[in-house]
Amino acid sequence: MKGFRYLKDATTLELREPACIGCGRCLEVCPHQVFTLANTKASIVDRDACMECGACALNCPVNAISVDSGVGCASGLINEWLRERKLPRGGGACCS
Amino acid sequence: METPAGRVPLIATELLFSDRLGAWKTRWGIGRMNYLVPPGLYAIGTPGATDPVVVTANYKMSYDIVRSQFGGRNVWLLVLETFGINVWCAAGKGTFGTGELVRRISETRLAMVISHRQLLLPMLGAVGVAAHEIARRTGFTVRYAAIRAEDLPEFLDKGRVTTSAMREMTFTFRERAVLVPVEFVMALKPAAVIMLCVSLFGALLGRPGAGIEAAVAYFGAMLAGTAVAPILLPWLPGRSFSIKGAVLGFAWSALWLLLTGAAWNSLSTVAAFLVLPAVSAFHALNFTGCTPYTSRTGVKKEMRAALPAMGTAVLAGGILLIINGILG
């Protein structure tokens, strides 16, 4: 994505290349051009661009991709943390 | 209009004043969680059995943006039940998902209405829809056409080709600016409570005017984090949102010192430079949820470092102000 970069080494994305059948779905669904396809195998070319949306893993027909997907949202994470500790949550309907 | 699967509502592609007003209101957080249209199949123009089927969410703003692209065209619009949530957020929650798409295909009896078996989905819907599962369960193939609905006419005109530009996420000045009102409105309620407390606290400890001044200083720091940080996002230093916010909070502290500095002493100055950047940093960090490029792991990593730092800064600033009040 032009003009924007988030933290380095902050993704759980993994691709098991031996399992890949080269269908290209991951390239089709990734909005950050993380993957490339060469010799009927996908590979990761821009790992740090991954935002862990999980579209690639969900759309991979052979489960060659894994990612701990979720929303990169601070208030969502705070709400999640409060919920786990059964504490009252503040306002905000987003990511609740 | 009549179809082999029964009557399908015919919808317009031009947005009325009421549609624009509705969008404006939701941008300001008015009735935002209850802005929806009924799910189902809709007809645009006079679509036939071979015309494209475009899938979207039942958030009215999503539906309006999509239908307004198709002036003079014949298109089927399949609206999924996402409970008034936009495509991407609904896909993340799973409501714009495989199960709902399968259900909606069968409920609308889509297979009787069209002769082809291709569905055009928004790319960000892929977060919730597994294309191979749709194919297996319904026989329909899923094409993720483009990220933005605005690219759909070009996609259709050029033989259904997704260009690399259509596949690439953007976060333009305009795309960021439209998110500001709702951020600001959502921050306003807690800010009002805090400002009231700060005013009372300040009035008790210092001059009567000091409380009001401190409350305005807080408001400025909140505004820097919720409005200025999103607008200036790519130009602010650092990758971390809290650092971007802290830089703005620091700038705001300096400006506020210039404007009202005559009444400050060294303790309250240090306190302001501790607390205000922390407030701006917190609000800027909250904006991570509105951007299309922050990862969950990244935000967790940032929060682990930033939240304790913010807490310490606010606590230290508060202690300094109390000492200042006692001494003063």
Question: In words, what does this structure look like?
Answer:
The complex is a heterodimer of chains A (96) and B (328). Chain A has helices at residues 25-29, 55-59, 74-84; strands at residues 14-15, 35-38, 41-44, 65-66. Chain A is of the alpha+beta class. The model of chain A has no long low-confidence stretch (mean pLDDT 90). With 328 residues, chain B is α/β, with parallel strands linked by helices. Chain B folds into two domains: 2-169, Rossmann fold (3-Layer(aba) Sandwich), CATH 3.40.50; 175-327, no CATH class. Chain B contains 14 helices and eight strands. The longest helix of chain B is centred in the last third of the chain and has 32 residues, at 296-327. The model of chain B has no long low-confidence stretch (mean pLDDT 94).
Topology:
The complex is a heterodimer of chains A (96) and B (328).
Chain A: E1 14-15, H1 25-29, E2 35-38, E3 41-44, H2 55-59, E4 65-66, H3 74-84
Chain B: E1 2-3, E2 6-7, E3 10-11, H1 17-27, E4 40-44, E5 53-57, H2 60-67, E6 75-80, H3 87-93, H4 98-107, H5 110-113, E7 118-122, H6 131-138, E8 141-146, H7 152-157, H8 164-167, H9 173-177, H10 180-205, H11 208-232, H12 241-260, H13 266-286, H14 296-327
Parallel strand pairs in B: 3-4, 5-6, 5-7, 7-8
Antiparallel strand pairs in B: 1-2, 4-6
Give a concise summary:
In chain A, 22% of the residues lie in helices and 12% in strands. Chain A starts with 13 loop residues before the first strand and ends in a 12-residue tail after the last helix. With 96 residues, chain A is α+β, with helices and mostly antiparallel strands.
Give the integer mean of the pLDDT values of chain B. Answer: 94
Overall pLDDT score of chain A? 90
How many strands appear in the DSSP assignment of chain B? 8
**CATH class category label of chain A:** Alpha Beta
Q: How are the strands ordered across the major sheet of chain B? A: 3-4-6-5-7-8
Percentage of residues in DSSP E strands of chain B: 5-15%
Q: Determine the CATH topology of the largest domain in chain B.
A: Rossmann fold
Q: Helix tally of chain B?
A: 14
Bulk shape of chain B: elongated
From the alpha carbons, calculate the radius of gyration of chain B and give it in angstroms: 25 Å
**Order of strands in the sheet with the most strands of chain A?**
1-4
Order of helices and strands of chain A: EHEEHEH
Q: End-to-end distance of chain B, in Å? A: 78 Å
Number of domains of chain B: 2
Oligomer: heterodimer
- Large-scale geometry of chain A: elongated
